UniProtKB/TrEMBL annotation:
Residues of the DNA-binding region: 23-42
Taxonomy of the source species: Bacteria, Bacillati, Actinomycetota, Actinomycetes, Micromonosporales
PANTHER family recorded: HTH-TYPE TRANSCRIPTIONAL REGULATOR RUTR (PTHR30055), TETR-FAMILY TRANSCRIPTIONAL REGULATOR (PTHR30055:SF148)
InterPro entries: Homeodomain-like_sf (IPR009057), HTH-type_TetR-like_transc_reg (IPR050109), HTH_TetR (IPR001647), Tet_transcr_reg_TetR-rel_C_sf (IPR036271), TetR_C (IPR011075)
Protein's name in the database: TetR family transcriptional regulator
Length: 175
C-alpha cells in the first residue's frame, strides 16, 4: 500500500512539476512518508520514475497486434511506441536516459518478446524466413524509431514510421 502511494505521488509530482524539478522530498511529502523510505526502495529518481511508469503505462509486449500482415503489425506496434513517447514526454524521456542510461530498455521493455511474436506470425503466414532473421535485425524496427524520437525530441511522425517499415525493415526481412 505504501508502495502504491509513493508511485502515485511520484507520477502526480512529475505531472505537476516536470522531471527536471522532481525531487524525492516532493514525492515523500505528497506520499506522506519520509524520503529515506523512498531511497531504500529506489536509489534514484530515475529508478523511481521507471517504477511509476510501469504502473501507469501499458507494456508494448501486451496485446501484440495481429493484423494478418507483417507490415501492418510492425506499424501498429511502432505507432504505440511513438505514442508512448508522446504520453511520457520529452522532459521525462531525456531526463531518465541522461541519469539512468539503461532506462531505454526499461521503458521499451520486452522488445524481443513482441518482435518475435510478430515475426513468428509472419513466418507462419509465409511472409519471412524466420531462421534468417538475426537478433540485431529483430531489434532494428524499435531501434530506428527510438533513434528518431531521441534525435528529434518528438514522437516519430507517421511518415517516418512508414519509411522505416517500408524502405528499411520489410526489404531486409523479406529479401
Amino acid at each position: 500500500m505504501l508502495e502504491d502511494a509513493i508511485l502515485t505521488a511520484a507520477w502526480d509530482e512529475f505531472a505537476e512539476v516536470g522531471y527536471g524539478n522532481l525531487t524525492m522530498e516532493g514525492v515523500a511529502a505528497r506520499a506522506g512518508t519520509g524520503k529515506a523510505v523512498i531511497y531504500r526502495r529506489w536509489p534514484s529518481r530515475a529508478q523511481l520514475m521507471v517504477a511509476a511508469m510501469r504502473r501507469r503505462v501499458v507494456p508494448l509486449a501486451e496485446d501484440v497486434p495481429n493484423t494478418g500482415s507483417l507490415r501492418e503489425d510492425l506499424l501498429a506496434v511502432l505507432r504505440r511506441a511513438s505514442g508512448r513517447y508522446r504520453e511520457l514526454g520529452h522532459d521525462l524521456m531525456h531526463g531518465l536516459i541522461a541519469e539512468f542510461p539503461h532506462v531505454q530498455s526499461e521503458i521499451f521493455e520486452a522488445e524481443p518478446s513482441w518482435t518475435m511474436t510478430i515475426l513468428r506470425r509472419a513466418a507462419d503466414r509465409g511472409e519471412i524466413d524466420l531462421p534468417r532473421i538475426t537478433p540485431r535485425m529483430a531489434r532494428l524496427p524499435m531501434d530506428l524509431v527510438r533513434h528518431e524520437m531521441v534525435v528529434t525530441h518528438a514522437p516519430a511522425p507517421e511518415s517516418a514510421l512508414v519509411e522505416i517499415v517500408d524502405d528499411i525493415v520489410l526489404p531486409l526481412f523479406t529479401r
